[in-house]
Amino acid sequence: MTAQIISGTEIAKQIREELKEEIAELKEKHNLTPGLATVLVGEDPASQVYVGQKEKTSQALDIYSERHDLPADTSEEELLALVDKLNKDPKIHGILVQLPLPKHIDTTKALYAIDPKKDVDGFHPVNVGKLMIGEPDYLPCTPHGIQQLLIRSGTKIEGAEVVVVGRSNIVGKPIANILLQKKDGANATVTICHTRTKDMAFHTRRADILIVAAGKPKAITADMVKEGAVVIDVGVNRIGKTAEGKAILCGDVDFEAVKEKAKAITPVPGGVGPMTITMLMLNTVRAAKLAAGIA
């Protein structure tokens, strides 16, 4: 049995087409253009690529986009002043401060400064708390993307044994919270494994749905996966370069071995990655509707 490949590239494309229609309708019926501001401090190459992709996707969807590139020596006070200005700007519905920030800036302080109604990343403690009690304004982008991959690939989530490998605040904890809610596209039984789990393979072999965000190349091998499981690989690891100097990427799952055992699996690249930016756009549209009272 060779697994069905769950293409994040294709599913993200579907969602963006739906968003295009929704944005056109908001403009026509409500004279409302969703607006997203990105803030980048410093010149981290990966961050520059991510911000560029977000800007490009915004423009493709006809979302108003502002990009604020600040020098690496920008003070914490200057960054917080910019965030405050964007909080008050009615054209801006979503604010994204790109991480990582330079060491002299308190990341927590910067993220907490964003108005929760404009926190389209879903990292503010108000939005984390709303997610916990099942009443979120926004779902965090990568976990929401994972849920959509499962739903749109026809994976049965209700009643499923879900095992999440990794307990980060960005992926592991929120996806566990999303999938255990008493809601459509959820109602799963969720186990979280991490670096202190005694026998990880015991847990992963029980999983109907295995979500891996371990941050370690090929950490999940075929003997750790149940026959017929659905495997979502969140990891992106650079393990070398081609002769042309292009990065060789792999996930946290041994894809070639596991695809012969799983029912369905996401590739790396082209799996979870394309979903993250798309869900950011979806959150920006939702933020605009919430601000206008039409959500």
Care to give the gist of this entry?
The chain is α/β, with parallel strands linked by helices. It has helices at residues 8-30, 45-61, 76-87, 107-113, 125-132, 141-152, 172-180, 200-204, 255-258, 273-292, and strands spanning 4-5, 35-41, 64-70, 94-97, 161-165, 189-193, 209-212, 230-233, 237-241, 247-250, 264-265.
How would you characterize this protein structure?
It is built from 10 helices and 11 strands. Helix content is 40%, strand content 17%. It is an alpha/beta fold and 295 residues long. The termini are far apart. The protein has helices at residues 8-30, 45-61, 76-87, 107-113, 125-132, 141-152, 172-180, 200-204, 255-258, 273-292, and strands at 4-5, 35-41, 64-70, 94-97, 161-165, 189-193, 209-212, 230-233, 237-241, 247-250, 264-265. α6 (141-152) crosses α7. It folds into 2 domains: 31-117, 3-Layer(aba) Sandwich (Rossmann fold); 141-272, NAD(P)-binding Rossmann-like Domain (Rossmann fold). The model has no long low-confidence stretch (mean pLDDT 95). A 6-stranded parallel β-sheet has the order 1-11-8-7-5-6.
Helices, strands, pairings?
Layout: E1 4-5, H1 8-30, E2 35-41, H2 45-61, E3 64-70, H3 76-87, E4 94-97, H4 107-113, H5 125-132, H6 141-152, E5 161-165, H7 172-180, E6 189-193, H8 200-204, E7 209-212, E8 230-233, E9 237-241, E10 247-250, H9 255-258, E11 264-265, H10 273-292
Parallel strand pairs: 1-11, 2-3, 2-4, 5-6, 5-7, 7-8, 8-11
Antiparallel strand pairs: 9-10
Helix pairs in contact: 1-10, 2-10, 6-7, 6-10
